[in-house]
Each structure stands twice: as C-alpha cells, then as structure tokens.
Amino acid sequence: MASRHDDRVPVDGDATPTTGRWEGLRRHRRALFAVAVILLLAQMTVAMVTTAVEQTPTIDEPVYAGTAVVYVQQHSLRYNPEHPPLGKLIIGGGMLFARPHLDPAFQGDQTELGRHLLYESGNDPWRVMLWARLPVIVLTLLFGLVVLAFTRDLVGRVGALVALALYAFSPDVIAHGSLATLDVPASGFLLTSVWLVWRARRRPRLYVPLAGLALGAAVATKMSTLPAVPVLLLLAVLSVRHAGRTAADTEPRDDRAAAEVQPPRPAVVAPDHGGGALRLLGTGAVAAAGMTLVAVATVWAAYLAVDPRLRWTAPADLPAVHGLRALLVGLLPLPEPYRDGMRVQFGFEDTVWQGFLFGRLYRGSLWYYLPAALLVKTPLGMAALWAAGTTALTAVRRLRPAVPYLLLPPVVLLAAAMNGSRDLGVRYALFVPVFLAVVAGCAVVVRRRWAGIGAAALVLFVAVSSLLTYPYYLPYANEAFGGPAGTRLRLHDSNVDWGQDLGRLADRLRREHPHEKVWLVYKGAGVPAAYGIDAADPRTVPPERVHGLLAVSDTAIAKADSRLKALLAGSRPVDDVGHSITVFRRP
Fold first, then answer.
1. Three-state secondary structure call for residue 437
2. Which candidate, 122, 121, 57, 116, places its Cα nearest to that of 91?
3. Which candidate, 395, 389, 356, 368, places its Cα nearest to that of 490?
4. Could you please report the per-residue DSSP string of 292-316?
5. Per-position b or e across 128-158, b if 16+ CB within 10 A of its CB
6. pLDDT band for position 51 (cuts 50, 70, 90)
7. pLDDT band per the 50, 70, 90 thresholds, residue 28
8. Theoretical Cys-Cys bridge with 492: which of 69, 165, 356, 568, CB 3.0 to 4.6 Å?
9. Is residue 310 within 8 Å of 334, Cβ to Cβ?
10. pTM value?
11. DSSP 59
C-alpha cells in the first residue's frame, strides 16, 4: 500500500523532470504576471504625473490645498467643512515637502484662501500643486493593486490583469487620480473595504476590522459615501455567516463515527439547524457592529489628527435642516464638524444648479444625467467588458456569491448620485469605473477561445483610445461621441473644462500669438496674470471695442449669455487648447 507521504512536494534532491518543468512554468508565469503589472502601473504613473505637471489648478483644488495647509500648519478645522478632513490630510502630507508660506492672520473664505496660498503668498503655484497632487497619484496606484488583488481572488491572474488594465487605462481614473481632489480616494477606500469584507468570508476576525478601517477612511474623505455604509454592514453579516457555515462544514469529526451509517433524527436536527442559523446571524450582527465602531473611530481620528482639542465654531450661514435630514444629522455618532458639514451639503442639494447635456442648457437636474455622461466618457471597449463581466458574474455559479459585493455598492451609490441636484460631471460617479474594473475581469471565466481573443481585443481597444487622448484626459469622450474634441458639444464643467488649461493657453499665446491683443473669458480658479496672460474680460467693454484674439473656456461657451453669444457670433475659431479652451479671432 502506498504511503500517504508519497504525495509530498518534491525537494531538490528527489524532484522529477516533470515536476521541474511544472515549477519552471509556474515561475515563468509569475514573472510575466509581475512584469505586466509593473508595465500597466508604470504607464498609468507616466500619464498621471504628466497631467499633474502640465495642468493648472482646477476649480476645487485650491480650496483643498489651502485647507490642507491650514490643517497642517494651524491645526484648524474652520475651512471646507462640507468635506471631512482625511483626503485633505493626505494632500497636506505631500505639501509638507513644498513648504508653502501662508499668513496665519489671513481672513477670507475658502475660495479666497486657495487664491491667497497659490498667488498672493510668494509661493510657486506649479510646485505647490504638484506636491499636493502627488499623494493622490500614489494612492490611485495603490488602489490599482486593490483592483488587481480583488479580481485575482475571484478569477485568477488573467482576469486580474484585465481588471488592472481597465483601471490603469481609464481616462476618468487617470484624470481625477492626477488631481488634488477627493473623488478617487473616496472610491478607492470604498472598494478596499468591499474587498476586505469579501475576504472576511474566510477570516472574519482579521478582515472585518480592516474593512471597518477602510470604510471609515471612505466616510472620512467624502460624505457621498454614506449611502454605502448600510450596504457594507449587510455584506459583513453575509461574510461572517458564510465563514461560520464553512467552519461548521469543515469541522473535524471522529473517523469511527463518520464511518458508521447513522439513521436520521429530524426531530433533533431541525431545531439545531435553526438555532445555528440564528447564532450565525447574531455573530454577523456583532461583527457588523464592531465594523461600525472601527469606522466611526476612524472618522473621529481624522478630525482629531487635525485638532486634538476639536475646536469648532459653526459657520454663521449654516443651512437649517428639517425632517429626516435633521434626524439623520442628529443621530450620527460623528464629530460636530462632520454633522455641520452634512448640513452644508444638504444646503447644496437644495440649490438649483445649471446643467448641460447633449447641447441643452437647463436649470435643475436630470435623473438620467450621470448614466448619459458615463455613456459619453466611458471607452467603448470598457463598456463592453463591463457588460460581459456582469453577465459572467451573474451566470457562473461559483461567482454568484460576489454579485452583492461588486454590484450592490455602486448601484446604491449611483442611485443616490442620480437623485442629487448637481449635474456637474462623472466625478460624482467615479466609483463606477473603479468597481466595474473588477467586474470586467470576471469575463475571462468563459472558457472559449473566442472569448479570450475578444477580451484581449477589447482591452487593446481601451488602451489605444486612452493613449490617443494623452495628455488631455479630463475632456475625454469615446469615439462614438467624437472623441475629446467633441466633448464640449455634449457635456460641460468637470467633464471637459475645469480650469485646467490656463497654463497651456499661456504657452500657446507666447508661442503662436505673441504681441497680440487678448481677451479672455475663463472659468476656473487660476489667475491668468500669474501665468503671463495679459488679457481683459470682453464682457466689461462695448462689443465694438473687442478685436483680436478671444479665448473662451468651453464651459463658458456652453452657458453663454446673450452678450457672450453676440461676441462669439462675430468671431472665427482659430485654435483649440487642451479641448477645453477655444481661441477665436475677432476682426
């Protein structure tokens, strides 16, 4: 009879030729996998760093940068209460290396604070913004590793590479991952929490607390992640319940008892089964409660990291909230600055904003705005792989347990965002490409040659589409909608023109239009004079005095009033800067 030791892994001394070949093949595949991961993240790094170096501040960035400096230097929470501090602390970590000067006696609102930091304090705005953006770039790359690990847990290395490729070539992820903003950090922390909850199906004692930490980081970065909290807690209950069932099924039994044929005893088994299920649910509920405590503690820690004394004075113009909103704000066990920040966000939601979709300017919001904007700004190959991955996820039996983990959080968050009042960009749904990259990786489970070839072709299509838009990722649109040059005809604001190309405009004017009279209608947070642009606003003088070059932000064109429309009607487009600023010539 063969010994059970015959199945041991061979060592160098007794390795067979077949075993050696298999081991060599495994090492070869691992090396190729590592090289592919490095190459994908390297191209993403180049894309984001190039974008960060070339772009001037977008509208939100000076506010976050100024607030981060106040956090680090003055330990004050008085600015930007509508967003929790963690994301800005991360930005501030990079700015420690820039050593920006900020007058402690400065008085002004948060918009004035950002302008004062960048343009009125003797700081180099290019250097300050680069150091503010670098921590977000690093974090975006780390979240790429989460996408890779999550997908590998589900479907292995090939699917993991597909998922990472979609993430690394995503124009929206690259565009916002290269900015000192909060959208990528919030989405990435949330995906990390879901991944850790998924892993808690095997080791709940380790991964549930870590999932709570990541969930707390998401909530401490952006309040828009709050609707996902009950979803994550439900998933924690499911994971702990699954772990308990698995442990019960694999519990060692006495060999002699197992060998005996035992008659069924339904009167005893049924009550035990029900009691066991209830115990598992109870254990899951306790784990979810513990996860909640860790998340809440993380939010408190973010505020205490700014000011250990938690000094806070509510703004004088703090909006009043009523009904369910007031109940929610009052019940949350979070710091007072957080709850007041929620009141500010509710005030934003009560404001009527302008939107622009497919050439139509409107007031208010459209429930289908975000799906329509995602349709425009998602690479076609990526959308096809999202659909294929979703089909595989729901159709393949072994993947079905992952459906609530991968689909429920983005669906709930998208529904909440679609109900919002601000139709200002797909950045409000940036979690969609982040989560669905993992979903798309599941498409490789279809064991057909045509499926593998099709997936590879679609990934290549996405890569080419992304590379062709370099380095203008913010105004990206897919080929069906005319590419980046056509985005301004269909969308506005952070979808295309967020003030990022003021520096590029300055370079273009110096290089191709020197010594010409320039008029400028700019939508952004930058100061044109700081980049060497000597221009006046044409709306401040009679139209007959406006001659020469007229540079206009594309969002301003989309929202043009009658005066600007009249100026544009008598002008001829002669140049385009970054697909976000159009240069006209007026005779």
1. helix
2. 57
3. 356
4. HHHHHHHHHHHHHHH-TT------T
5. bbbbbbbbbbbbbbebbebbbbbbbbbbebb
6. very high
7. confident
8. 356
9. no
10. 0.91
11. S
